[in-house]
Amino acid sequence: MLNMKILMVLTSHDTLGNTGRKTGFWLEELAAPYYAFLAANAEIVLASPKGATAQLANTVRLDSVSQDDFDAVFYPGGHGPLWDLAEDPKSIHLIEAFLAAGKPAALVCHAPGVLRHVKKPDGTPLVAGKKVAGFTNSEEEAVGLTNVVPFLVEDMLIANGGLYSKGADWSSYVVSDGLLITGQNPGSSTEAAQVLIAQLNSLNA
């Protein structure tokens, strides 16, 4: 497919709870898909709730973008999205709008947590009855943040009715169900991007 335009949505949250430690997006989860999309000749726009930062000056504000202007959306992880994007009405509506328009959405690692309040048209959780993956409880335990994060991605996806599955800790594991693509951890980023590109090519064949 030529002239793909992909929106990548990043967190603006930079503090790990009340620990004083810094968080945000995980660089691998941004860089690996970004370069995969570039290799596929896609145009990429970065957006976040607060817009540009010193680290990413070309990032636009999330409230300035619309699904009408893009072919797909990709959410990198890092712990930050659990605090801001999971509760952000604009992000919630954006994902709902992409899927309603028949456009794929891919989320990796902690980013599937952003689906916490996303609904289907009938008001039920988006993930209910859908095959999903996301950062596992055991991976969260391994990084020592089980009691710091506002919620555990694995537990939330299951509680919302998702058909959650996982691979070995830290191995690449990606699940797709219709237009929804989810990856388990940072190592799943490239595979998730490749699945998204393949789906876009299929949709526009």
UniProtKB/TrEMBL annotation:
SUPFAM superfamilies documented for this protein: Class I glutamine amidotransferase-like
Q: Which UniProt keywords apply?
A: Lyase, Stress response
One family from Pfam that matches here is DJ-1_PfpI
Q: Name one GO biological process term.
A: methylglyoxal catabolic process to D-lactate via S-lactoyl-glutathione
What residues does the DJ-1/PfpI domain cover? 28-198
Q: Which domain of life is it from?
A: Eukaryota
What are the record's GO terms for cellular component?
cytoplasm
InterPro entries reported for this sequence = Class_I_gatase-like, DJ-1/PfpI, Prot/Nucl_acid_deglycase
GO molecular function annotations of the record:
glyoxalase III activity
Transmembrane helix is among the record's keywords = no
Q: Which PANTHER family match?
A: GLUTATHIONE-INDEPENDENT GLYOXALASE HSP31-RELATED, PROTEIN/NUCLEIC ACID DEGLYCASE DJ-1-RELATED
* Family per similarity comment: Belongs to the peptidase C56 family. HSP31-like subfamily.
What is the protein name for this chain?
DJ-1/PfpI domain-containing protein
* Source organism of the structure: Mesorhabditis spiculigera
- Lineage, highest ranks first: Eukaryota, Metazoa, Ecdysozoa, Nematoda, Chromadorea
